[in-house]
Amino acid sequence: MSNTVTFLIADDHVVLREGLKALLKSVDGWDVVAEANDGLEVMPLFEEHKPDLVVLDLRMPNLGGVETIKRLKREREDTIILVLSAKDDDKSVREAMRAGANGFVPKSSQSNELEFAIRSVLKGQTYLSPTVCDAMLGVDGSEEGSSPLASLTDREREVMKLLSEGMPNRDVAKTLHISPRTVDSHRANIMKKLGVTSNAELVQIALRNGLIE
User: If DSSP codes are grouped into helix, strand and coil, which group holds residue 53?
Assistant: First the structure.
């Protein structure tokens, strides 16, 4: 049985991803088995390679990091996820940890901190970089479910995100591999659940709840 620790990296910046891959592979016993350019690519790669640890960014196209974390945790509750992101404001840190991330390291951190964080989460610990610890003060899950997006399914959130970013229905359909009619159906359900009647209102809700930036 191999003692190699395997990683899946998810980040839409190729140069950063290559640098991170080289860094991880330089550690004895560590190997990167898959790379994803966005959140939608993560799940099939995760199912195929079954990595020991997923390192992901929060700011990714098509499906953001927080939603990706939730999907990974639903797929396998004990999935180990470390966030490595430049988006390290208080709200982003809280949302990532509430979604189920095991650790959070800003991209501005030194490589030795990243390695320490990885070793910590692999041992079952939670790691928060000292620079983001303040964001977690008072995090007790009391706000869980307060978001209006809590009523939406995963697919509805995906559709809402893409529509809110201004993507036409036909392109949403192509991106998610569904029919335009299905997109229309999802859009109608989203509007009904959120109690809105226009795209402008949809975009405002998406912005306020961190679905888009």
Answer: strand
Q: How far is CA 75 from CA 71, 72, 99, 149, in A?
A: 6, 5, 13, 20
pLDDT tens, 164-194? 888 899 999 999 999 999 999 899 989 888 8
> Which domains does the chain possess?
5-136 (3.40.50.2300), 148-208 (1.10.10.10)
**Is residue 159 within 8 Å of residue 187, measured between CB atoms?**
yes
Tell me how far the alpha carbon of residue 126 is from its chain's centroid.
17
Q: Which residues contact 98 (CB under 8 A, 6 or more apart)?
A: 139, 141, 143, 144
Question: Hunting for tokens 């180990």 — which residue is that?
Answer: 80
pTM beyond 0.70: no
